[in-house]
Design a protein that fits this description.
The chain is built from three helices and 14 strands. It has 261 residues and is an alpha/beta fold. The strands form three sheets. The chain has a six-stranded mixed β-sheet with strand order 4-6-8-10-13-14, with no helix packed on it. A five-stranded mixed β-sheet has the order 5-7-9-11-12, with no helix packed on it. A hairpin with a 2-residue loop joins strand 11 and strand 12.
Length: 261
């Protein structure tokens, strides 16, 4: 399977979106026919990252906390896709009302988990029910004053290793890790990622759409590398590159990984 390719899905079915760790959404398929003139249809696969909100009872108190958090960090949800997970709410909850309340807060809701269409009613129309998403560590919401804006291309330097379950997110520039990224940890950057150590977890560069970014590391043992939504898993990595110092970049829509000789 070529890098960035994804499991086969049938014709006429909706693509499956998975999250953070971020599974595959489809890959090139062919329409077979006994007639040799039948053309092939190419479906390009991509992986995506999204924030998962988990409403809790009592819902009024939870919405109040959400509003307070949004006031402290008004740009946190800006342009971020959001998944709503209803699994923590009791069955007697008015799910359509909760979903409507979230939509009034200008969240970019792209899908739902933890509730059936019957529970959600007409308010869920147009939102796919997502299955099989793999959770990662909690994302720390920054305390940003209302009148403050993030510095453009601000770089983040992390002194020390990123341990399993930790998530480092910086959407405004490069991330440099002076240490290793453990298995089960992740680094997400709007720019490039430099790891002066071993990558055993997941590293995502160009999260906000940058194609000219790169990933560098002293030793490659990564579960996943991704740039601008195109990714390569450990199974897709050439054995000769494992344990080597490498760099990764995009060549058109192909994620290239090469040794730093």
């Amino acid at each position: 399977m070529r890098p960035g390719a994804h499991p086969r899905r049938g014709m006429g079915q909706s693509p499956t979106l998975t999250l953070t760790r971020l599974g595959p959404v489809g890959y090139p398929i062919g329409v077979s026919s006994e007639e040799p003139s039948q053309s092939f249809i190419r479906v390009r696969g991509r992986s995506f990252m999204a924030v998962v909100l988990v409403p809790e009872a009592p819902i009024g108190d939870w919405l109040t906390r959400l509003d307070e958090q949004t006031r402290r960090a008004p740009l946190f949800f800006d342009e971020r896709p959001v998944i709503v997970d209803f699994s923590a709410l009791p069955i007697e909850t008015d799910f359509p009302e909760v979903l409507a309340a979230l939509k009034t807060r200008d969240l970019r809701i792209i899908g739902i988990e933890g509730a059936t269409p019957e529970l959600l009613g007409a308010e869920s129309w147009g939102l796919p029910k997502l299955l099989g998403g793999k959770p990662v560590g909690l994302i720390e919401v920054p305390e940003t004053p209302d009148d403050a804006a993030p510095a453009p291309n601000a770089s983040l330097i992390v002194h020390g290793p990123i341990r399993s379950g930790q998530s480092i997110v910086s959407l405004t520039g490069d991330v440099t890790v002076i240490g290793s990224v453990s298995s089960g940890a992740e680094v997400i950057a709007g720019g490039s990622v430099h790891v002066y150590g071993t990558i055993r977890g997941r590293v995502v560069a160009g999260f906000t759409g940058g194609k000219d970014v790169r990933i560098f590391c002293s030793r490659l043992e990564a579960e996943l590398l991704a740039i601008d939504g195109i990714y390569r898993t450990a199974d897709d990595t050439a054995p000769a590159l494992r344990g080597k110092a490498v760099q990764a970049w995009l060549d058109d829509d192909v994620l290239v990984v090469a040794a730093l000789d």
